[in-house]
Specification:
By secondary structure, the protein is α+β, with helices and mostly antiparallel strands. The chain has a single domain, classed as tt1808, chain A (Alpha-Beta Complex), CATH 3.90.1570. It has four helices and twelve strands. The strands form four sheets. It has a six-stranded mixed beta sheet, with helices on both faces. Strands 1-2 form a two-stranded antiparallel sheet. The protein has a two-stranded antiparallel sheet with strand order 4-5. A hairpin with a 4-residue loop joins β8 and β9. It is globular.
């Protein structure tokens, strides 16, 4: 039997900062992050390497892996990879231009529903779900109405990202090759 949500303690970013281990905070509720698999880490490394190389001439944007995105006092997410522009400081405090989440069976619900909803609400223009175990990628774009619409399902190939002045192309054949 579980407690109703309104009876659960509601934690803040200040609480979160003092916790040991890897956590995310969603509307005041803490979620422990599982240790990533080797396959997850390989895909993460490739995403970071290829995006970093592609953004070489885009001086105001950078790729940040596993960096806290402080949404508000009660929500702190740690996207697998975020592309941010004009960010200052040690945490992500601006809305990312693109967020990549590497999905496993154990994180699917959180990535596909909870985080997708938060990124959508916060106005993240592009949300990319990478499924290494299925060799599949789903790319969502924020519509003018503020709702994610699926752009494409990929099982490889190239996709070009346009970040309003910074463009880069990823070869998902290389990224999914793990």
């Amino acid at each position: 039997m579980s407690l109703p949500k309104e009876l659960l303690p509601r934690y803040t970013y200040e609480d979160y900062r003092n916790w040991k281990g890897d956590w995310e905070l969603v509307e005041g509720i803490p979620f422990a992050l599982a240790s990533p698999s080797v396959k997850h880490r390989r895909v993460l490394a490739k995403l970071v390497r290829y995006i970093d190389e592609a953004l070489e001439n885009c001086r105001n944007c950078e790729v940040l892996p596993d960096t806290d995105y402080i949404v508000d006092e009660y929500t702190v997410l740690r996207p697998d990879v975020a592309v941010v522009c004009d960010n200052k400081g040690e945490k992500i405090t601006v809305t990312p231009k693109v967020v990549f989440e590497i999905v496993s069976p154990s994180t699917a619900k959180m990535d596909e529903i909870t985080k997708k909803g938060i990124y959508e609400r916060e106005g993240v223009p592009l949300y990319v779900l990478v499924y290494p175990h299925l060799r599949k990628v789903k790319i969502f774009k924020l519509s003018p109405e503020g709702v994610y619409k699926k752009l494409v399902d990929l099982s490889g190939g190239n996709f070009s990202f346009d970040l309003e002045g910074c463009e880069f192309t990823l070869n998902f054949d290389k990224i999914l090759e793990v």
